[in-house]
Specification:
Elements lengths: L18 H11 L2 H14 L3 E3 L15 E3 L12 E2 L21 H9 L6 H11 L12 H12 L5 H11 L12 H9 L6 H12 L1 H5 L3 H8 L3 H12 L16 H4 L6 E6 L2 E6 L2 E2 L2 E3 L15 H42 L1 H6 L10 H8 L3 H8 L3 E4 L2 E4 L16 H13 L9 H10 L6 H11 L4 H4 L3
Amino acid sequence: MKESLSLETALKQQQRLTPLQVQFVRMLEMSTPEIEETVRRAVDEMPALEAKDADDSSPLDDEDTREHSADSDPTPIYNRRANNYSPDGDYYDAAAAAPERAETLMESLASQLALTDMDDVDRIIAANIIGNLDDNGYITRDLQSIADDIANRADINVDVSRVNRVWQQVRQLDPAGIGAVDLRDCLLLQLKRLPSSAAGDTATEIVAHYFDLFSKMHYKQLRAVLGISEDELKEALAVIRRLNPKPGSAFASGRTDDEASRHVVPDFAVDVDGDRLTLTMLSRIPELSIERTFAEDTPVTPGTHRSRRDAANLFIRRKRDEAQEFIKVLSMRQETLYRVMQAIVKLQRDFFLTGDESLIKPMILRDIKELTGYGLSVISRATAGKYVTTPHGTYALKSLFNERPKEDNDTSAHEIFAAMRSLIEAEDSDKPLSDERITQMLTARGYDIARRTVAKYRERLGYPVARLRKKI
């Protein structure tokens, strides 16, 4: 067998992002609060970066405006200023404020347990049980696992029967339904606390013995097995519907992370004056410049050692380049965001004028690319997590994008959503519309759409299938 060595040359193309591009991508993805905090941190950490002096105008509180007519075609010259509030205009604050400190479910249960007659071991068991409840009030671990946890953490051996006894005590606390293992158990706990009545007794029997039929809305079968009239069934179902399937949800979650207090801060505002639209970019970013002492290299002075002077100049140039790069990337971000939003306003002009979501036209990333020249990934990052406030409400930019159900049709998905919603809301609750019937009715209205698309859109609107929408 003969062996040989060979040398081959292959040409491989690989795309790599420069450090400047990486920084730009990161900034582009940031929301308004995040970019404001990034700029504040940069001003503190970069010695060559300077914000506008407070004497001229406070850098973080200046409310110089940047707003342009959204109707004009040419993109306005975009300087590096980012102070985008008008002194005499409306201040667009967060769409929802963080709530005041509220009592958590665990705190409420603990305060109730403090009033009960329990020994120290039972209190440890109870604390472990309520510590294993989720935000809705359901228990998340089995009793044996809780007993094992107590043995491992507190070095106390307790049998499952004792854990079960304490668990039953916890299940008697308020709100009713706390400590349930599933929805059926939760509803039964609440039904047991209601005053005795014929409707309540029937509701308890339905949940206890015929929950499957109830959850699938097989009302005719329920009436048959229970031997009751339609009115009696309606009364029993009314009792069940008044129950709370998530008894713990009324309490604060107890989380301390940003998710617990996050609220929407608009990145843009679109104002309407007759048929004129004005687009404003909302961010309180100071005007940045290079600090004066870093603007030039260290001058030659008599007696200065050359190596020391060269080291000083190298430090100055490095810090100056770092600050200039930050200013450049920030300016690129602001310019990109504004041009993308301007293109969105141009394409969705009718929606911004009226606030009618059915007027949202088909629009995909490629449509914005044709107007701005940006790449699809840039546009996707520029719109992700960004919001626009209008006289009609605050909207996520991503919600303004929607596909065409058919390539050769300019009807938008939002328009079909509105039509489907009106059909379903007006349907006979005794005989809900099937997807096939909705398809036929939409076709009669001029919407050429397939049944599978109707099913997909119905799910996106949050409507269940016809069988589960049926009421008696």
